Amino acid sequence: MILVYQSLAMLLGIGLELVFGSPNRTIGLSAVLDRLIRLIEHIFYPEFPGQQALRRRGRLMAAVASGTLFAVSAVTLFYLYRFLPAAGLAFEGILFWQTLAIRRSWTSVARIADDLTAHDLYAARLHLSFLSNADTPRMTAAEITEHTRKAAHDDLANGMIGPLFYFFYLGAPGAVLYLVILRLRSIHAAPDDRYRFFGIASVRLYDVIRVIPEFLARSLRTVSGRLLPRTRRSKPYANEVAQTVSESRLSLLLAVALSLLCKVPAILTLLLR
After folding, report:
1. pLDDT for 45 beyond 60
2. CA-to-CA distance for 232 and 230, rounded, in angstroms?
3. How far is CA 183 from the centre of its chain?
4. How far apart are CA 176 and CA 101, in angstroms?
5. Domain range holding 159?
6. Fewer CB in a 10 Å sphere around the end CB: N or C, the chain?
7. What angle do helix axes 29-44 and 51-83 make, rounded to 10 degrees?
8. How far is CA 121 from CA 184, 242, 253, in A?
9. Coil, helix or strand for 28?
10. pLDDT for 121 beyond 60
11. C-alpha 262: how far from its chain's center?
């Protein structure tokens, strides 16, 4: 029955994200993980840092942070499913929800498309600043379109396909593990002397775990682009950005459908025993 519960938890998590959006950054799982990572970092950061010491401690810190948080979520989920299956289902769905970033991305990209249609570059730059760290104040319409498509693709890979892929194989703890490594990379990729060597392990770990979600996101987006008709708008840049939202939505729908289809044979086998 665990596969049935896991499938329901996946749909619950996506449903919560589409209805309520991403949790508040100050109280959501990302904020909690950031605080825990800072705490673990404080323990492992060497008192007298040298290049080799920083590299070793950085590897140890990345392993301990990701392994510990994965284990805690896995053990909690195991005992909830064992004694309170309904609570386990709800907990897994909520955990999965916390790892997603769907509604915010779609809303921001759709607003940028509307801004470009209305020739409002100031508003488009403002909305793009919520998606991208690029320097937006002097961007042209073509640059806004290019950066919007890139930011939307990153959100598709990191906030939708990545969590879904690891949830498919490892359940909610897998999605949490993916989010932990994203947060490690976000913190330790800062271009300063403190993380120049200490953060190497986190960045490389992120590069490894992102390979398959990046490939899947690119493939699904390509398929979606061929399946969808072109959106008709008066401005070509707005048309391209609007198409990005449609591609992202269809890509997620295809990914969820494929995930469920892959589980159907196993679920039917269990039910027919």
Report:
1. yes
2. 6
3. 10
4. 13
5. 2-271
6. C
7. 140
8. 34, 16, 31
9. coil
10. yes
11. 22
Q: Please give the structure tokens belonging to residue 199.
A: 């953060």
Structure-token match 């029955």, residue found: 1
Cα dist. 112→44, 106, 134 in Å?
42, 10, 15
Give the C-alpha distances (Å, rounded to integers) separating 244 from 105, 149, 153, 182.
Answer: 11, 6, 8, 23
- Alpha carbons 210 and 136: distance in angstroms, whole number: 26
Tens-place pLDDT, residues 63-100 = 999 999 999 999 999 999 999 999 999 999 999 999 99
CB burial readout 234-263, b (16+ within 10 A) else e: ebebbbbbbbbbbbbbbbbebbbeebeeeb
Neighbours of 19 (CB within 10 A): 9
Single pTM value for the model: 0.90
Per-residue confidence (pLDDT) for residue 246, from 0 to 100: 92
Evaluate whether 251 touches 224 at the Cβ level (below 8 Å): yes
Residue 265 corresponds to which tokens in the numbers above? 């044979």
What are the tens digits of pLDDT across the range 200-254? 889 899 999 999 999 999 999 999 999 988 666 556 788 889 899 999 999 999 9
| Residue with token string 């100050």 | 26
Number of domains in the chain: 1
